[in-house]
Each structure stands twice: as C-alpha cells, then as structure tokens.
Give the backbone structure.
Amino acid sequence: MIHITDPADCCGCTACASICAHDAITMQPDCMGFLYPTVNTTLCTDCGLCETVCAFNEHYDTSLNLPQPEAYAARHKNMKEVETSRSGAAFIAISDWILQQGGSVYGAGYTDHFRVVHKRATTREERDEFKGSKYVQSDMGKVFRQVKQDLRNGMIVLFSGTPCQTSGLNAYIGKKLCKNLYLVDIVCHGVPAPYLWRDYLSYLEKKQGAKICWVNFRDKQEFGWRAHKETFNLLKGQER
Ligand SMILES: Cc1cc2nc3c(=O)[nH]c(=O)nc-3n(C[C@H](O)[C@H](O)[C@H](O)COP(=O)(O)OP(=O)(O)OC[C@H]3O[C@@H](n4cnc5c(N)ncnc54)[C@H](O)[C@@H]3O)c2cc1C
Ligand code: SF4
Ligand code: SF4
C-alpha cells in the first residue's frame, strides 16, 4: 500500500485513491493544505495497485514518451482570448475543438470562496472558468473517476493540469481507454499551498474591511504581460 515518508514524493494527484477498489484511501491535508493519501488499513487488501499507478514510483510506465520532445509555438487568433488567458490561449483553442465534438473538458476552477478545485465542463461558459493560472494546488476531488466514466461512455475528453497531475491521470486511465483522452499539461514550477492562499484572502478582507468577490492571479488587461500582480475586486464599492 502507498505510504508517503517524504512529502516531495507525492503531488496529491489522487491516482492512488481513485484506483483503490475498496475506497481505502482518502486525501488528507497537511498543515499547509497540501493533500496526501491516507490508507485505512482495515479496508486495504494490500493489492499494490496504488503503488503501481503512482507517477512517483520508479516503475512508472514511460513507454508512451517521445524519444525527443517535439515543440510547436501557437497563439490564439482572437486577441480577446489571449488577453483573458494567462499566456497564448492555446488551452482555449484546443478545448473549443473538444467541446465542438460533444466532449468534456476538465480544468482548474473555484469553489467555496476561491478554493481551487478541478471541475468538469461541457459548455464554453463552464470551460471559461478554467482560463488563467491559479497559483495554488488544485483539489482533484473525484475528477479522475469522472474522466474514466466519460471515456467509458465513449466521450472524447480533455484534461488540463500540472504535469504531475496529468501523468497521474495517464497512469490511472491506462492504455485501453486512453485513445480519446487529450492531456494538456501547463509549464509549471510548482504549486503554492492552499492554506497560504486561504489565509491571504482572509488577511486582505480583514485589512480592507470588505469581502472579495473576484480574483485574478495576473490581470493582463489591466497590467500587461510582464507584471505579476494579483488583482482583487471587493464588494465594498468594487475597489481594486
Ligand atoms: C501552478 C502554476 C505554475 C506555473 N509555473 C510556470 C512556470 O514556471 N513558467 C511558465 O512559463 N509558466 C508557468 N505557469 C503558467 C502556465 O504555464 C500558463 O498558465 C499556461 O501556459 C497558460 O496557457 P494558456 O494561455 O493556453 O492557458 P490559460 O487560459 O491561462 O488556462 C489555464 C490552464 O491552466 C490550468 N490551470 C490553471 N491553474 C491551475 C492549477 N492550479 N493547477 C492545475 N492546472 C491549472 C487550467 O486548467 C487551464 O488549462 C504556471 C501556472 C500554474 C497554474
Ligand atoms: S498517486 Fe498521486 S496522490 Fe497518490 S501517492 Fe502518488 S503522487 Fe501522491
Ligand atoms: S494496496 Fe490496494 S487495497 Fe490497499 S490501499 Fe492500495 S489500492 Fe487500496
């Protein structure tokens, strides 16, 4: 069974919890809010599947990797999409293509006062919530199992996330079902802690004496490409 001794050996992707047929694994936050698997040993049958599926396991299947990376550069033709995306809006172009074919798109959005979570979208309106980087570890919830269900139902699926999340999903889905699965992994230097983000929002609200009603980790329309300023709208008079 999975047992994390070094926190650097787990990205909280949920592949292990999703593959466990006995639901013996739950994801628990550490003191910073990073999620790690905890095994209920009374439910566990020691089948070993959770260890096999983990992308941090040395036997992780890399047979689908290209011998050399192939690089292409792309930017969306519509400048409105570029302005409201974090970078060149390739994600929007690719996910539009998936949605046009009746597929589902998964990406990072918000719940409960800007807690970052992964969600499913089947319309452009739902998908637009995934635009833009959220510099926090995203909680996968039950999304890996939803992806598998969509694939089993014959849908075409796009999953976007960090490279460690996509490699965890890839291993969980396996070769039989991966034909209709498109993975978009972002360039990522690591995810900040969820509780740091939660506490920062509380600090700002206390300081400003108003509730935050909108956030943007990098507002290109307001500050251009180079600035790295978080932008918040407050309910009190919509101040910035
Ligand atoms: C945690 C993090 C670290 C990053 N580190 C780097 C870096 O080191 N160097 C660099 O050049 N760029 C970095 N980026 C920026 C990222 O590579 C760009 O956001 C991406 O390339 C934008 O492409 P786009 O314009 O097509 O997508 P956008 O429209 O900006 O869409 C955002 C995409 O990112 C996904 N996403 C957003 N937040 C998260 C999250 N918290 N977890 C998982 N997926 C998420 C969404 O699902 C969506 O697919 C980072 C982004 C994040 C979220
Ligand atoms: S499968 Fe994912 S969540 Fe489970 S131990 Fe490995 S990295 Fe962590
Ligand atoms: S060893 Fe098997 S039964 Fe035990 S937690 Fe891992 S996947 Fe579940």
About this structure: The pocket of flavin-adenine dinucleotide (ligand 1) is lined by residues 85-92, 107-108, 116, 130-136, 138, 160-162, 184, 186-189, 191 (CB under 6 Å). The chain has three domains: 7-53, 79-185, 194-234.
